[in-house]
Amino acid sequence: MTSKPNARYAGCTHARVHRHGTRACVLAHRCDCDPCQVAARQYAAVRGLAIAQGRWTPMVDAGPVREHVHVLRRHGMTLPQVARAASRTRTDAGPVTVRVSALERLMYGQTRAGSNQPVHRVRIELANALLAVKPEQSPALMAAKVERAVESLSDQGWDDARVGALLIGATPAVRAAVVRSATSSRALAAQAGPVLRTSLDRYVARTRRPLGATLSPEVVAMCRHVLSSLLPEASSVRARPAAVQILLRAGLSVPQTAQVLGVSRRTVERRVAAGT
């Protein structure tokens, strides 16, 4: 089955460019090109066989799914975090994309006839993806576990650089969780700071231009790229304490750190005074 966003096929008379080779294209644009019709026929064949065998359940009760999302929220997860966690779920049909708007309709209903009416049924793919998300995936709970692990290693005599080596090799979810802890942020900065410093030194050696008191746009973009690879969601307010520590460990000054983060110098100075 072909799927090209800009391709033209015999039988397609639409001037608007759309994605061919999918049933969605047939429903949205009434496209009658060969790849789209093949996709529609294949879907109809699978649907017909499932109905004949009594296995066709495209929609399920929304109540248990809604209650499960309530449980996740009571454990500290926001709707965007639930959507991201559910989108990492893989099913037999492939990955599932869960949008925040779909969660909002599930939780708060949709406006009909001037009033919000609850959603009674949801697609089974969405239900399975949401039910697969466990409360243990909450960033708050994950941060607590990481903090306990870091404190245990510190009590055993591990220094920040050694603990940071474990954190920097961990999954992005774990690294995103450490920003909630000052101890873990300091350990991560002990490893991530030298990595960023190496990138800056290579830039200076390649261009033969010193950094200067005010960083050039190219250097700022490079720092932000390296920082985001080391610290997920580095631009968020929640991750700012860890980001400040990493940039200072890399040898940047307070004004340069403020320039990379896009904040005022006073904001960075407050973080430094508070021990970030």
Number of strands: 6
For the sheet with most strands, the description reads: 2 strands, antiparallel
Query: How many H/I helical runs?
Result: 14
Unreliable residue runs: 1-8
Could you say which overall geometry the principal axes of the C-alpha atoms support?
A: elongated
Q: Look at the helices and sheets and give the structural class.
A: mainly alpha
What is the percent of helical residues? 55-70%
Q: Beta fraction of the residues?
A: 5-15%
Instruction: Write out the strand line-up for the largest beta sheet, numbering strands in chain order.
Output: 1-6
Describe this entry's structure for a reader:
The chain has 276 residues and is mostly helical. The chain has three domains: 56 residues, no CATH class; 77 residues; 135 residues, no CATH class. It contains 14 helices and six strands. The strands form three sheets. Strands 1-6 form a two-stranded antiparallel ribbon. Strands 2-3 form a two-stranded antiparallel sheet. A two-stranded antiparallel sheet has the order 4-5. Strand 2 and strand 3 form a beta hairpin. The chain is elongated.
